[in-house]
Amino acid sequence: MGLKQFNYNLRRFVNQIKPNVEKGGKFHAFRSLFEGFETFLFVPNETSKSGVNIHDSFDSKRLMILVVIALVPAMLFGMYNIGYQNMALGASLGVAAKYTGFWATFTYGLLAYLPNFILAYVTGLAIEFTVAQWKGEEIHEGFLVTGFIIPLIIPITTPWWIVILATAFAVIFAKEIFGGTGMNIFNVALITRAFIFFAYPSVISGDSVWVLDHTIFGLGCNLPDGATCATPLGAAAVTGATAFDWNMVWGLIPGSVGETSIIAIALGALLLIGMGISSWKTTLSVFAGGALMAFIFNKTGDSQNAVAMMPWYQHLVLGGFAFGAVFMATDPVTSARTETGKWIYGFLIGVMAIVIRVANPGYPEGMMLAILLMNLFAPLIDYCVYQTNISRRAKRIAKK
Amino acid sequence: MSLFSKQNKEVFTAPLGKNNPVTVQVLGICSALAVTAQLKPAIVMGLSVTIIVALSNLVISLLRKTIPNRVRIIIQLVVVAALVTIVSEVLKAFAYDVSVQLSVYIGLIITNCILMGRLEAFAMSNGPWESLLDGLGNGLGYAKILVIVAFIRELLGSGCLFGYQVIPQWCYNHGYLNNGLMLMPPMALIIVGCIIWWQRAHNKDLQEQ
């Protein structure tokens, strides 16, 4: 069967099902599900009925897929790092893993990561489908990226029921209540993390949550009770900063799954910026703001505060700073939309992230709070940019 | 007019449901967020407000024909302040630990919007018996929402009700954790929001176009 024949048969099959799910059909309850898959398989051939519209093949489904592809390096590296951290901590405590080597390490991470990944998607999509069916709307694609990011920004040890609860909370209260995809004020994936951070602080902070301590199907090693390993950033707030180490760039350090490797994140950033999906202005200004603020703290901060004394380049590679700058701050829905606004928005995110890290040792991860805070101010920044533009032009007219 | 006429019943029951001061008029939110982390202070707060609204409604209604219109707010405040002071002293005498937990919020009942709202909107233009019923209804309507919010927050936030652990230890041993967010005021706001959502979804009259 050739591809063309297959395509033809698939179309016929889909057309056969269609009457059953349309209004009055037997399976009307699955209309939104059907529509979602139909538009996933085929480009919809509905056209607008009025006016002249210029249409591009680049729709939001493709945009979302490209963001997901950009996240893949960070995810794959994260999986490897899950295994690496378990075995490295085991080796330092004298516990050897039965299987070693790249594939054993990677498979261990994959098996550990997969449940979180599936749970986040199933929970979020179930809510999306239900709401779409209930309101008689189409399914939106927004959760494709959100669901991909959620397991990347939480520790691998997060209990399964907390993943479900936090995802459900974020999708309902940060997104559906505001009107669904594209209408949310806050980044939904970050609200998931913030929910866990404030509701169950013990599973997302401290030094015992970053490394898995048990074997999975014989892979990895069982660590003794109380084996802990803090993230370099968390350790800096408690016991003093560790010196810069190239592993902080490669990513072989404990942390949330996707945030550790600057190299993998940079690959994603290249794709996103190269394809013109995310704004380089936002990403660059986040780094600029962070670097400047960290530099100021280096020069003027309290010399007893290890986080304030941490060199600026170390601030930028540790924690969720890079991941946030590349994937979360550039979220087209929640970031500033004017070009000038993007500079201001990004810069303030960088500044706030470092200020929160330095000024409040209780919140070593300042990036999450900084982005959520600036999400709130993005509309105001845009408004100010518009107004200055309007008044500038008004003055120009008045001069003539 | 009989004491329990249909109209009077409506005066009493409307604030419990369709005209609830918290969920429909959105008054008294501040204290509803502040005192609802546990059931016990929430109930005490609800009862205190009920007593104060009912009595101040009664007093103002009795005085309503002699109060000069220009100074009515001052007079209302004096009556409310006197009642709040009495309730506060009684709590300090007989329920000291709860009064410490409630701290300033008992004193702040003076500024509770529900009180001034009922005095201005109802007691100034209705008889003493109706005003008493209206005060009781509004106070209990407020208390009802407080108790619902406090029930959810204490159960999920600390696994307790009235300070007694109700979520079995077995759950904690198997990885269940208390939800710390429930103990923070923002979550109370979200719960109140959900109650409003539920109520509007079930009452066509409350839905705006």
Task: Describe the protein's architecture and organization.
The complex is a heterodimer of chains A (400) and B (209). With 400 residues, chain A is mainly alpha-helical. Chain A has 2 domains: 7-41, no CATH class; 60-387. Chain A is built from 16 helices and no strands. The radius of gyration of chain A is 23 Å and the shape is globular. The termini of chain A are far apart. Chain B has a domain at 8-151. Chain B has helices at 6-13, 29-34, 39-63, 72-94, 96-102, 104-107, 113-121, 128-158, 169-173, 185-202, and strands spanning 160-161, 164-165. In chain B, helix 3 packs antiparallel against helix 8 (128-158) and helix 4 packs across helix 5 (96-102). Chain B is globular and about 65 Å long.
Give the SSE string of chain A.
HHHHHHHHHHHHHHHH
Rounded to the nearest angstrom, the radius of gyration of chain A is: 23 Å
Span between termini of chain A:
73 Å
| Proportion of residues in helical segments of chain B | 55-70%
> What's the pLDDT, averaged over the residues of chain B?
87
Biggest interface, chains and residues, is:
A-B, 11 and 8 residues
Rg of Cα set of chain B = 19 Å
State the helicity of chain A in percent bands. 55-70%
- Please give the alpha-carbon distance between the first and last residues of chain B: 37 Å
Question: What would the principal axes of the Cα set say about the shape of chain B?
Answer: globular
Order of helices and strands of chain B: HHHHHHHHEEHH
Largest sheet of chain A: none
Shape descriptor of chain A: globular
The beta-strand count of chain B equals 2
Separate helix tally of chain A: 16
Strand order of the largest sheet of chain B: 1-2
**Helix/strand/pairing category of chain A:** mainly alpha
Oligomer: heterodimer
The biggest beta sheet of chain B, please?
2 strands, antiparallel
Uncertain parts of chain A: none
Bin the strand percentage of chain A.
under 5%
